[in-house]
């Protein structure tokens, strides 16, 4: 039945320390109140965060689709007049890219909405409701289908983009208001990885003050831009009240926002109970390969990556070393040792990868050789999709199930650079061992290193120092925003 806890002896707090509230229908979204059973959080959310989430829920309900305020505001948007008669302001997020990226962009947009008293609406384009339940009570976070702006056509060069407004001196922070006078009724924020100098001024204080007065913001991003919000002076006090433990932003917000739909959750919990629940220890290994060898060998097989995985796991004592003997001799020795030490512990390894080769090879090694401490190692992998197909419904559902399964391990090894891994470590609240990127088909030495924090990395973080008005090293401004372990030019909260 659905109510069997994987670890019935462990007390769990279904509301995640107050992040969630009672009152949602449990049957239509089982994961919401059940995820608590499957991970141990290292942190409790601050009372202030909880207070602000409740306020945000009130705002989402008051200003959301179907309300008088929403009708009023969207009428103004289509007419082009701004007579701000309501106190409802909006942030529309255009969702795209892979699933890991999507989770990072939604969490970032939500935090920005919270900081600027806007409601967050996400676009339907990716059929987000196949993947996630509604997070806010009594309202919907999906942009209604009759939304007046065709934002799907906006690109980096659209004149509506904030960067272009600044560049064309139409409007913006720091521009001479006497020249321009008018405020646009909406602004498009282009914050994709390939954004330009003017787009990045979004992360400056003056520009934030300008944007504060715009009722509709439409944001397109594929990144976790939270670290740069921590560098904007106007947000700093509020952020430290919300997150006294700074490196828990994604952990709390992701557990607040994301609740996989029943189909996905059913496959997650079934898999967990079948293969992971009974093991003495669970180790998740996320294998994401960016190297190619010709067009046919996208995910390998690459023996140097297999070696990297094994030496990382064994050096860091996440998996036992294997003995030297092979075949029958090994088996005899195995039996003998087992009789002596009575070690019948099992480690369950959950691998995720687009390829099945790595899982098969790791399993083969542990099957053919005894381990030095006689632990049994079993390796499981739920799927091997071969290619990334971000617009395929079933494919995305499998990917989400695997992100959640990864988050249910006791230890994690992830592939550097990958937002898929960031999402899993963030949900889990685990500091993973990050496998660094190999170059020219040679695995790096050391093969992996421990992450400084559980936070995701902001890959294409800006390096413009707004105060000094020139480029600077933004990884050295405050002690809690540093360069990432895996992406030297990126920023992360530690
Ligand atoms: P990133 O590209 O590694 O940063 O992660 P994203 O999640 O943004 O994009 C990669 C996409 O490829 C995922 O959303 C999946 O669709 C697919 N993918 C990559 N690795 C895996 C995996 O281990 N399992 C499954 N099921 N899909 C994967």
UniProtKB/TrEMBL annotation:
Broad enzyme group: transferase
An annotated GO cellular component: Golgi cisterna membrane
Gene Ontology BP, a term: xyloglucan biosynthetic process
Main location: Golgi
Enzyme Commission number(s): 2.4.1.-
Top-level taxonomic group: Eukaryota
Keyword list, A-Z: Cell wall biogenesis/degradation, Glycoprotein, Glycosyltransferase, Golgi apparatus, Transferase
Subcellular location: Golgi apparatus, Golgi stack membrane
Topology of the protein relative to the lipid bilayer: Single-pass type II membrane protein
Transmembrane segments: none
Sample GO molecular function, one term: galactoside 2-alpha-L-fucosyltransferase activity
Family according to the record: Belongs to the glycosyltransferase 37 family.
Function: May be involved in cell wall biosynthesis.
Listed name of the protein: Fucosyltransferase
Organism: Panicum virgatum (Blackwell switchgrass)
């Amino acid at each position: 039945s659905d109510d069997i806890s994987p670890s019935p002896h462990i007390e769990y707090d279904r509301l995640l320390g107050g992040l969630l509230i009672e009152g949602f229908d449990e049957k239509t979204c089982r994961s919401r109140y059940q995820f608590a059973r499957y991970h141990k959080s290292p942190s409790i959310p601050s009372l202030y965060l909880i207070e602000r989430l409740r306020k945000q829920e009130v705002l989402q309900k008051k200003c959301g689709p179907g309300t008088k305020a929403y009708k009023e505001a969207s009428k103004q948007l289509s007419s082009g007049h701004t007579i701000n008669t309501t106190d409802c302001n909006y942030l529309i997020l255009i969702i795209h890219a892979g699933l890991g990226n999507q989770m990072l962009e939604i969490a970032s947009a939500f935090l920005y909405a919270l900081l600027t008293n806007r409601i967050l609406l996400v676009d339907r384009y990716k059929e987000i409701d196949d993947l996630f339940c509604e997070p806010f009570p009594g309202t919907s976070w999906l942009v209604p289908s009759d939304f007046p702006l065709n934002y799907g056509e906006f690109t980096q060069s659209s004149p509506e983009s904030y960067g272009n407004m600044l560049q064309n001196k139409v409007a913006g922070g720091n521009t001479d208001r006497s020249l321009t006078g008018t405020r646009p009724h909406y602004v498009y924020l282009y914050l994709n990885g390939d954004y330009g100098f003017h787009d990045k001024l979004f992360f400056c204080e003056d520009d934030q003050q300008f944007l504060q007065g715009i009722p509709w913001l439409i944001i397109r991003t594929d990144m976790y831009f939270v670290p740069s919000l921590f560098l904007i002076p106007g947000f700093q006090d509020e952020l430290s009240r919300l997150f006294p433990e700074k490196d828990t932003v994604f952990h709390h917000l992701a557990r607040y926002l994301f609740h996989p739909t029943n189909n996905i959750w059913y496959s997650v919990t079934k898999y967990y109970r079948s293969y992971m629940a009974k093991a003495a220890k669970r180790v998740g290994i996320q294998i994401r390969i960016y190297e190619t060898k010709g067009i046919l060998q996208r995910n390998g097989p690459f023996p140097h990556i297999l070696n990297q995985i094994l030496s990382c796991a064994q050096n860091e004592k996440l998996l036992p070393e294997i003995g030297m003997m092979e075949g029958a001799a090994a088996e005899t020795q195995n039996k003998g040792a087992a009789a002596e030490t009575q070690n019948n512990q099992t480690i369950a390894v959950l691998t995720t990868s687009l390829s099945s080769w790595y899982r098969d090879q790791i399993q083969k090694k542990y099957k053919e050789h005894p381990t030095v401490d006689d632990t049994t190692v079993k390796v499981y992998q739920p799927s091997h999709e071969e290619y990334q197909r971000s617009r395929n419904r079933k494919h995305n559902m499998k990917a989400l199930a695997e992100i959640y399964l990864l988050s249910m391990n006791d230890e994690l090894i992830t592939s550097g650079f990958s937002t898929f891994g960031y999402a899993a470590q963030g949900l889990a609240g685990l500091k993973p061992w990050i496998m660094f990127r190999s170059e020219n088909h040679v695995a790096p030495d050391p093969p992996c290193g421990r992450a400084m924090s559980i936070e995701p990395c902001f890959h294409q973080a800006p390096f413009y120092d707004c105060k000094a008005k020139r480029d600077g090293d933004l990884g050295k401004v405050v002690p809690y925003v540093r360069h990432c372990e895996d992406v030297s030019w990126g920023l992360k909260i530690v």
